[in-house]
Design a protein that fits this description.
Blueprint (H helix, E strand, L loop, with lengths): L1 E4 L5 H9 L3 E4 L7 H7 L5 E4 L7 H6 L5 E4 L9 H6 L4 E3 L5 H16 L2 H9 L17 E5 L3 H12 L3 E5 L8 H6 L1 E3 L3 H7 L2 E4 L13 H6 L5 E4 L8 H9 L5 E4 L19 E3 L8 H19 L10
Parallel strand pairs: 1-2, 1-3, 3-4, 4-5, 6-7, 6-9, 7-8, 9-10, 10-11, 11-12
Helix pairs in contact: 1-12, 5-7
Bound molecules: nicotinamide-adenine-dinucleotide and the ligand O=C(O)[C@H](O)CS(=O)(=O)O.
Length: about 325
């Protein structure tokens, strides 16, 4: 059977498929080459994608022999789940496989905001020794507000607790008596405004949906503390980018860490890249060697399970 991998996949998973007798074609840029992809896809029994391949009705119609779709991550905003369901094609994300890596990225962002080592290093290399300017702040006793209280948010909360932070969270779908809140030390709040008003850091952990698009925009920044930072490692489009630029430029908030953008890769001349206090990274929060090895192996194994006639417990449709 033939498997087509259209985006970055760690060797472990590719080798696992080959060891089990599958023929694998791998082009990590194919997700961006739509017409080539549409031409190639009918020949494959399984499709393995990441976040850039648009898996819509058109692609699924072309994928006449495809029996399963593996997703090398958890965000599903690039996949038309209804269209997959209608065609009886299970979609299998790498459930929880990169959550710890994202949680560590959020901790790194908060530490960078308060202890900017890269900037201090650059300054010392210029011959300066400015101890006053580089005096930082402690995360201890600061408030972290988590928007969305799913898998990643809880892993962030555990780590933030270890740093002595107060952690609050907003998620209308999580019950206030849910045991996970007690286990990870999150105090739930009832409204997004309440979270924004109290937080020194606001970290976003919701999927991109119609309801979450531009969930953080102009009026929300006005609620926030002037020294607060926004961290978005979830999806571009949840934070309104132009409103963010204006909020940082007018000092309504201190800055932001964005791992994800509304249009990826970053556009030439993007206003985001002109604001020093907006820190950008190329969608790498979930990318570590460990997480990608786990992700690739999990997806390879679950895809093979379906191709061999079994059922994957990780399938979302
Ligand atoms: N940057 C990266 O590398 C990276 C890596 C992994 C995941 N992600 C993104 O992070 C997102 C979250 O991942 P997760 O594993 O924590 O997902 P999850 O499904 O475990 O949690 C999402 C939470 O968001 C909540 N939610 C949904 N709509 C909401 C709303 N309108 N208001 C408040 N809460 C709402 C849900 O109730 C759920 O608890 C993913 O959907 C993905 O887009 C990014
Ligand atoms: O949704 C995810 O898991 C992440 O955004 C990482 S990736 O799969 O898009 O690389």
């Amino acid at each position: 059977m033939k498997v087509l991998v259209t985006e970055l996949m760690w060797d472990d998973g590719i080798e696992e498929l080959k060891r089990n007798g599958y023929s694998v074609d791998y082009d990590m840029e194919l997700g961006r080459k739509r017409s080539e992809l549409l031409e190639l896809v009918p020949a494959y029994d399984a499709l393995i994608v990441r976040n850039e391949t648009k898996v819509d009705a058109e692609l699924l119609d072309a994928a006449k022999n495809t029996k399963v779709i593996g997703r090398l991550g958890v965000g599903l905003d690039n996949i038309d789940l209804e269209a997959a369901k209608a065609r009886n094609i299970p979609v299998i994300p790498a459930v929880h496989a990169n959550a710890t890596s994202v949680a560590e990225y959020v901790m790194a962002s908060m530490l960078d905001a308060y202890r900017p080592l890269a900037e201090a290093d650059a300054d010392v290399r210029k011959g300066n020794w400015d101890r006053k300017f580089f005096t930082g702040y402690e995360l201890n006793r600061k408030t972290l507000g988590l928007v969305g209280l799913g898998e990643i948010a809880h892993r962030v909360a555990k780590r933030a607790n270890a740093f002595g932070m107060n952690v609050i969270g907003y998620d209308p779908f999580v019950k206030p008596y849910d045991h996970i809140l007690a286990e990870t030390g999150v105090r739930p709040v009832e409204t997004l405004d309440e979270l924004l008003i109290h937080s020194d850091f606001v970290s976003i952990h919701v999927p991109l949906t119609k309801a979450t698009r531009h969930m953080i925009s102009k009026d929300n920044f006005k609620c926030m503390k002037r020294h607060a930072y926004v961290i978005n490692s979830a999806r571009g489009g949840i934070v309104h980018e132009q409103d963010l630029v204006e909020a940082v430029q007018s000092k309504e908030i201190a800055g932001a860490y964005l791992d994800v953008l509304e249009t990826e890769p970053v556009q030439k001349g993007s206003p985001l890249s002109k604001v020093e206090a907006i820190h950008l990274s190329p969608h790498i929060a979930g990318l570590t060697d460990e997480s990608q090895s786990r992700t690739a192996m999990m997806v390879a194994k679950e895809v093979m399970k379906v191709l061999e006639g079994g059922k994957s417990l990780c399938a979302v449709v």
